[in-house]
């Protein structure tokens, strides 16, 4: 059976560059890899075919010979390639880890060996007030966590001794497995990738290389932080086993409800009651802000529901480093307790003004009268 054209196998043009070849191979290798298709002989053959194509086209010299002479120009080299087991010194397998990275390295057996897993990340829920979130603050936290053991300095071995190479993997952290024509490496089941084992454990940490403690930590909460935001503090999570890197600490912000203000992004909103005389005659009133009070001029005839915008009196936008605005909504306060004299004056005011001084009410009453007149005419 004649071989397919290598360019057709990878689905690329004959003038494809190196990156295009790698991308095509990566996509197909993930699809047909034997680990993803166990006991599938067709997938295994497809994987063999694309690997052979990549081995030729990713090598400038082999590609030049193939472009000039076709399969005849590289058949001898490919026979040697598969005769060696197909992996030992090839471009395809030498680049496999670079192509797939850490996310698939362990699945395909090409993850970095000799390294213990990093420490776990920690989460800390922090409640702050709106004022603290707006201005930012430095907080001191007590974080229960594992830290590197001072006695063995994180090695897990008793002072004066050292971890020894793992006898299962020979210190590599990985073991090699043969699956048909394909050689794969997996994390060592004995040392779990560390590459070493401890014969004389440290009495302080029991060989773990870390101990549980409570650490005091000062953290700066940035101005303008929003509800649900996460502040990452690198390296302040759990210490990794046997001197592996520490995880990170994530501080999750929760902002307490405020008695006056509601926040919407960098802007603040509040409702401010004013008296009927202030709204009718006009007045200058004090409006609240996070930084104290400011004067607002209420024009004569201000209606309830009118909104005044105070620029720059909101919260710092943590992304843009500029402040939002404060929106003050006017609410007409209705008196609940009046003296006899006040009631008399208010009735006198109502008698003297009627509905003429209320344009909205006069308009409304006029519309109601027209509605009733139309309704009466329809009934007749």
Provide an overview of this structure.
- The longest helix has 21 residues, at 359-379.
- The protein has a four-stranded mixed sheet with strand order 10-11-15-14.
- The protein is an alpha+beta fold.
- The radius of gyration is 38 Å and the shape is elongated.
- A hairpin with a 2-residue loop joins strand 10 (262-264) and strand 11.
- Mean pLDDT is 81; it is low at 84-90 and 93-115.
- The protein has eleven helices and 15 strands.
**Tally of individual helices:** 11
Shape: elongated
Rounded mean pLDDT score: 81
Helix content: 25-40%
Share of residues in strands: 25-35%
Please outline the helices and strands.
Layout: H1 6-10, H2 18-32, H3 41-57, H4 60-69, H5 75-83, H6 91-94, H7 96-108, E1 122-128, H8 130-135, E2 137-148, E3 164-165, E4 174-179, E5 182-187, E6 196-197, E7 210-221, E8 230-233, E9 249-255, E10 262-264, E11 267-275, H9 276-281, E12 283-289, E13 292-298, E14 307-310, E15 326-333, H10 340-353, H11 359-379
Parallel strand pairs: 1-9, 11-15
Antiparallel strand pairs: 2-7, 3-6, 4-5, 8-9, 10-11, 12-13, 14-15
Quick overview of this protein structure:
It is built from 11 helices and 15 strands.
Summary keywords:
three-stranded mixed β-sheet, Helix Hairpins, 380 residues, HSP40/DNAj peptide-binding domain, elongated
